[in-house]
Amino acid sequence: MRIWAYGDDINTDMLFPGKYTYTCTRPDEIRPHLLEDLDPGFAREVRAGDIILAGRNFGCGSSREQPVVGLKAAGIQAIVAKSFARIFYRAAVNQGLLLVEAPEAVAAYQPGMPIEPDARAGAVNVGGRVYTFPKLPKEILAIREAGGLLEFTRATLKARKGA
Amino acid sequence: MPMTFAEKVLARKTGKASVRAGEIVTCKPDRLLMHDNAAAITDKVAKDLVEYGVADAEQPVIVLDHVIPASDEKTAANHKKIREFVRKYGIKHFYDVGTGVCHQVMVEKGLVLPGMLAVGSDSHTCSYGAVNAFATGIDRTEAAALLLTGETWFKVPETIRITLKGRLTDLVTAKDLILTIIGQVGADGADYCSVEFSGDIANLTLDDRFVIANMGVEMGAKNAVFPVDEVTKGYLRSIGVNRTAWNAEWADAGATCRRALDYDLAKVIPAVALPHKVDNYRPARELAGTDVQQCLIGTCTNGRASDFAVAARILQGKKVHPRTRLLILPASRAELERALDSGDIQTLVAAGAVLLPPGCGPCLGAHQGCLAPAERCISTANRNFKGRMGCRDAEIYLASPATVAASAITGTITDPRDAT
After folding, report:
1. Which B positions 58-117 lie with beta carbon below 8 A of chain A?
2. Which chain B residues are closer than 8 Å to A68 by Cβ?
3. Residue A18 to residues A36, A87, A110, B84, B93: CA-CA distances in angstroms?
4. The domain at B271-418 falls in which architecture?
């Protein structure tokens, strides 16, 4: 498992350039362009189970969801950051991607330390120390646990139809 | 208990007497905006739409603006797919290529009105706070789910109150004010928050308020909003909206806010946001002499007739410097027509400007006016992120239409007060 560490204000143009937003929509089209303008080696080297670590305001900028869709498809286990921009946070819930908002854990991280997030417990282990993070409210957790918003919506519509 | 603007709108939409910041509510937005991304959105739920249909054909608004006219076969096919969706499902509000940038179209067609709740699959949906709407951006997946159910969830935001005092001085604009505010509070200073603007807002035109609300997301805000006053009412009358069509909302006296800030408009000076962050504030004068290869006046932030009027006043009888180029990108056909009627577009074109169709074009680097490596652009758009205008090795400086016009004459960043 590799930890990809970045700084503050990582915006969605860095995560997935705007010039591709109308030509790349499927996960396989998005993947080769992930973090293209931030870290050109990322798309080639990222592996399932890897973690992204970042500073404040991760995912700010455009509402494009390709960064979340692409990172989920690449198998990113979690993004651990000091804070997230709100549209990105919502997009991650909708795709079922785990976001860990834990500023102290990020501050404590040193290169080489292992990171183990535990979504159920709302805790993240960084180099042997455990930091807690706010768990999602139950209404929102239900969306992530359904596998994402579309799955949640389909289940809701089906139940309504059956009722 | 007194309530904020955001609490009042979300309480009303939820059918509750009151809601509090932090609470999660589910309700039906009055509007769901989509643009060229409507094809990708409807693709996600194509089968579900066949089974369940669109929840409410009055709710979605689709405006083709991001890559217009189509730049290649793929974007053309994308537009075609959207037109077919609109016809098949009887979508009531559809605006084809050339009408304008979605946010400007939403406001000028009266699709968003005071007190409304609007969501859009575009981050600058927050613009509609200019006309007292609670408006915020969402992602494509959420827009897809909304097409099917008509509803979504909201976390009631905390509020930041910004009180504006006095009046802006000559050649200083609302853009300078919002760049100054963002420079001070930071790119995440209003994260998850509702930002309420009040005070001497009578001194700000509706266009000014649009600029400010449009850039709310650049400080992380969920929405940015102004109260309704005579300026708003006059604007709504001018676009033919009946007074009975809307119910304005505003914060109660004593409503809780996380932070309160005051700005003296008379002290604001021409501002520039340096690459590659919108909160990278610097007075324009301190950048004098920095050469720019491209100047852009337009976009949903600053592409209205009033923006072209200030630019034309500066460029009247002058020429664009031979070492730079000037692009004009109107926010809508209606704004373009107004600027043609006033003669300001003719002045800009005579000075050497290139007129682009009303749309998003160069702002997101998809086509029209992309930059080359090591080039610098001074732009009235809302974002200067690395790679934003199509090239990761180019630089974008954000400024007001007055500053960009003054810079077009000299080919270097120029405070408009120093333009002669």
Report:
1. 66-67, 74-75, 78
2. 139
3. 11, 16, 32, 25, 26
4. 2-Layer Sandwich (3.30)
Q: By the CB < 8 Å criterion, does B365 face chain A?
A: yes
- Domains of chain A in start order, with CATH, are 3-134 (3.20.19.10)
Q: If one looks up domain B24-264 in CATH, what number appears? A: 3.30.499.10
Tell me which amino acid residue B181 is.
Answer: I
Rounded CA separation A108/B340 (Å) = 59
Does the distance separating the beta carbons of A86 and B220 come in below 8 Å?
A: yes
- Cβ–Cβ below 8 Å for B149 and A140: no
Tokens at B196, concatenated:
């309420």
Please name the helix (run of DSSP H) or strand (run of DSSP E) that holds residue B11, with its range, or none. helix B5-14
Phi/psi for B307 (5° steps) reads -70, -40
Domain parsing of chain B, residue ranges = 24-264, 271-418
Asked whether this chain's domains B24-264 and B271-418 adopt the same fold, the reply is yes
The pLDDT confidence band at residue A137, using thresholds 50, 70 and 90, is confident
pLDDT in tens, B197-229: 999 999 999 999 999 999 999 999 999 999 999
B177, pLDDT greater than 80: yes
Candidates A60, A72, A156, partner chain B, best to mutate (most B CBs within 10 A): A60
Q: What is the ipTM of this complex?
A: 0.93
Residue carrying the six token digits 């995912």: A59
Interatomic CA distance for residues B314 and B414, integer angstroms: 12
Does residue B27 sit in helix, strand or coil? Answer: strand
Residue type, position B357, single letter: P
Size of interface A-B (CB pairs under 8 A): 131
The structure's pTM equals 0.96
How close does chain A come to B349, measured CA to CA in Å? 27
The number of helix segments (H) and strand segments (E) in chain B equals: 14, 18
Q: Which amino acid is at B117?
A: L
Q: Tell me if A101 sits within 8 A of A133, measured CB to CB.
A: yes
**Residue B242, min C-alpha distance to chain A (Å):** 33
Name the residue in chain A with its Cα closest to that of B383.
A61
| Residues of chain B with C-beta less than 8 angstroms from the C-beta of A63 | 121-123, 125, 137-140
Query: Residue A42: enclosing H or E segment and its boundaries?
Result: helix A42-45
* Chain A positions in Cβ-Cβ contact with residue B135 (cut-off 8 Å): none
